[in-house]
Amino acid sequence: MGIVHYESVGPENERRVRLFAGDIFCWRARASSIALVSLAREMLVEAFAPLDPETAQHSLDVEQFAAILNVAKPRFIHDPRCKELIPQLLADLGCDPADTFFDVPRMRSATSHGYLTSGIAYAFHLHRDTWYSAPMCQINWWLPVFELRQCNGMVLHPRHFDSPVPNTSSSFDYQQWKRTGRVAASHQVRSDDRPQPRATAPVAEDGPLVLIPEAGGIMAFSAAHLHGTLPNSSGVTRYSIDFRTVTAMDVRGFAGARNVDSLCSGSTMLDYLNCTSLAHLPGDIVAPYADGPPQRCESQVAPGQHAG
């Protein structure tokens, strides 16, 4: 089970080693993170006006609410200011801009009491990002846009970091997901039938970890951590921002967390942009990842089969 570090100021290369071992890092809100969440807030307030984005679900039909998110979320993702603010935040936290690559940020929402849990507001079941073709060297960054409550954040299960969980990742291909699954989100309102990797056996609920960063606070953890959306019973919609990073040094050296159970194909490697130039990762170092994690899966589940 990893350690939670608060306000760490140690060397960034050592921090990555700790992240790949299952540790979690948290920081208080700072000017660079507040700038990013403020942009999200402005867009949400404008999109839901005159309603409050956190309580709008109580005044709108599900279809109306989803239609607003279908405009607001892509608008945030593709706003050019994000490509300026995220590198500023990463540099503020000690990342080397020349060697660090990030993907575009996602704005997430978790409505209260199951109001909308599919499609554009998908409530993520327990999963590892590495089941979704993320490389083992990926680091996830997560920031709440508004103040969190005890029951509307995100949950991690650190006790499963080094233990395989039977799952359907062998049937997931990221390039196919980009062509069909992602674009279908706007049509999944009352239910969500998109095939996504998930556990095929009950996951022991021992040792769940729920951290409550302040609005604009930052949490970083390995893509190999088992995590999901905490059931929201707060009465308000939770909004958050997440994005992901890799370091070219780690990509070249096949560094990262152990691959205990990921059998997916395809790769997210072409999504990352350099913090300085916005260029993609060089093709020669991306090539070994094209068919899935080059790190061999350590579980006894053969490719093409599901554990269970």
Please give a structural write-up.
- There is one protein chain.
- This protein is an alpha+beta fold and 308 residues long.
- It has a single domain (4-289), classed as Jelly Rolls.
- It contains 7 helices and 11 strands.
- The chain has helices spanning 12-20, 31-48, 62-77, 82-92, 174-181, 248-253, 283-286; strands at 4-6, 24-27, 100-102, 106-110, 139-144, 154-156, 209-210, 218-222, 227-229, 238-247, 273-274.
- Strands 1, 2, 3, 4, 5, 8, 10 and 11 form an 8-stranded mixed beta sheet that branches. A 3-stranded antiparallel beta sheet has the order 7-6-9, with no helix packed on it.
- Helix 2 runs antiparallel to helix 3 (62-77) and helix 2 packs antiparallel against helix 4 (82-92).
- The radius of gyration is 18 Å and the shape is globular.
CATH architecture: Sandwich
Number of domains: 1
Instruction: Tell me how many strands there are.
Output: 11
- Give the overall average pLDDT: 90
Order of helices and strands: EHEHHHEEEEHEEEEHEH
- The CATH class: Mainly Beta
Give the overall silhouette: globular
> In this structure, how is the largest beta sheet organized?
8 strands, mixed
Beta-strand percent range: 5-15%
- The CATH topology annotation reads as Jelly Rolls
Describe how the helices and strands are arranged.
Elements (H helix, E strand, L loop, with lengths): L3 E3 L5 H9 L3 E4 L3 H18 L13 H16 L4 H11 L7 E3 L3 E5 L28 E6 L9 E3 L17 H8 L27 E2 L7 E5 L4 E3 L8 E10 H6 L19 E2 L8 H4 L22
Parallel strand pairs: 1-2
Antiparallel strand pairs: 2-8, 3-10, 3-11, 4-10, 5-8, 5-10, 6-7, 6-9
Helix pairs in contact: 2-3, 2-4
